[in-house]
Amino acid sequence: MPRLKTEIFIRAWLRRAQSEGAFATVARKGDPDGGLVIVKAINTDRQACAWIETYAVEEKNRWRPLTETFLAEIEVNEKISRELNFDRDLWLVEVEDRDGRNFL
C-alpha cells in the first residue's frame, strides 16, 4: 500500500485537531511528499509531549514517543531540535489542547 503524501496527511491532521477545538499549526515544513512528522502536544500547564513518525507499515508501530510523559516545554523542544538537525525533511506540527491530546 503506497504511503500517503505527508502534506496531505498534515492537512487532514490539522482539520481533525481544529474540529475538536484544539489549536494546531505547522511549525516547520519538511519534504511535502515523503518527510516524516513530529507531533508536539502542549497542555494548558505548558507541559509538552512529542511523538515521531516511523517507517513502520503497521499503524500501531507508526508513531514512537520522543518523550514518555509530559515535560517542561523547553525540554521537549531540545529533543525535537536534535531530531530536526538530524533529518532536514521532518515536519513539525504542534497542537495546543487543554488535555494534551495529539490527535494521532
Short description:
With 104 residues, the protein is an alpha+beta fold.
* SS elements, strand count: 6
Distance between the termini: 19 Å
Number of domains as seen in the coordinates: 1
- State Rg: 13 Å
Described by the principal axes of the CA atoms, the overall outline is globular
Order of helix and strand elements from N to C terminus: HEEEEEHE
Please state the structural category: alpha+beta
CATH architecture: 3-Layer(aba) Sandwich
Helix content: 25-40%
- Which residues form runs of ≥5 with pLDDT under 50? none
Characterize the largest beta sheet: strand count, sense, and whether it forms a barrel.
Answer: 6 strands, mixed
By DSSP (H or I, 4+ residues per run), the number of helices equals 2
CATH topology: hypothetical protein tt1805
> What is the typical, i.e. mean, pLDDT?
93
Q: For this entry, what is the oligomeric state of its chains?
A: single chain
Beta-strand percentage range: 25-35%
Task: Write the CATH homologous superfamily.
Answer: Protein of unknown function (DUF1491)
CATH class term? Alpha Beta
Describe this structure in words.
The protein is 27% helix and 29% strand. The radius of gyration is 13 Å and the shape is globular. The chain has helices at residues 6-19, 73-86, and strands spanning 23-28, 37-42, 47-53, 63-65, 71-72, 91-96. With 104 residues, it is of the alpha+beta class. Strands 1, 2, 3, 4, 5 and 6 form a six-stranded mixed beta sheet that branches. The longest helix has 14 residues, at 6-19. The model has no long low-confidence stretch (mean pLDDT 93). It has a single domain (6-96), classed as hypothetical protein tt1805, CATH 3.40.1530.20.
